[in-house]
Amino acid sequence: MFCSNCRAQFEGKFCSSCGTAAATTGQSPTGADPLVFVQTRSAAPTSATAQTSGLAIAALVLSFLLPLIGIILGFVARSDISKSNGTKSGEQMATIAIIVGFVMMFLQGLIAIFWAALWFETFMYEY
Ligand SMILES: [Zn+2]
């Protein structure tokens, strides 16, 4: 197919050299809207420069050591990030901190039950 605008040969619906839509029979090529071919970049300039929330980092670290505090900090960080209107990032990190916090709390609970059971068993056999 040949472009009606620049006469270049191309395949498909749009000219590869100027972007003009392929002229179909009975339709004027002037009807093609050039704005359609302008690539609309997502307007999120702050995301590249956004600072990772210190609260999110603290939450992630504490979620391993002190899960309950990590979970609380994770939720605080999430609300802090959403209120920052794009100036702070790390929402994913805060979410991970909350998940890790719950997992660690669960594991620590299991360990506590294990030790309690072991202690109880020892106690029962000794007496
Ligand atoms: Zn063309």
If you had to describe this structure to a student in words, what would you say it looks like?
The protein has 127 residues and is mainly α. The protein has a domain at 53-124. The chain has helices spanning 46-49, 54-65, 67-83, 91-126; strands at 51-52, 88-89. It has a two-stranded parallel ribbon with strand order 1-2. Helix 2 runs antiparallel to helix 3, helix 2 (54-65) runs parallel beside helix 4 (91-126) and helix 3 packs antiparallel against helix 4 (91-126). It is elongated. It starts with 45 loop residues before the first helix and ends with a helix. 20% of the residues are buried. Residues 36-40 and 42-47 have low confidence and may be disordered. The site of zinc ion has 8 residues, from loops.
Keywords:
mainly alpha; binds zinc ion; 127 residues; elongated; 54% helix
Secondary structure layout plus pairing:
Blueprint: H1 46-49, E1 51-52, H2 54-65, H3 67-83, E2 88-89, H4 91-126
Parallel strand pairs: 1-2
Bound molecules: zinc ion.
Major sheet description: 2 strands, parallel
Helix content: 40-55%
Structural class: mainly alpha
Instruction: Give the strand order, joined by hyphens, for the main sheet.
Output: 1-2
- The total count of strands amounts to 2
Bound molecules: zinc ion
Order of helices and strands: HEHHEH
Give average pLDDT, whole number: 83
**Strand content of the residues, in percent?**
under 5%
Radius of gyration: 30 Å
Which regions are unreliable across 5 or more consecutive residues at pLDDT < 50? 36-40, 42-47
Distance between the termini: 95 Å
* Distinct helical segment count: 4
Q: Write down the overall geometry.
A: elongated
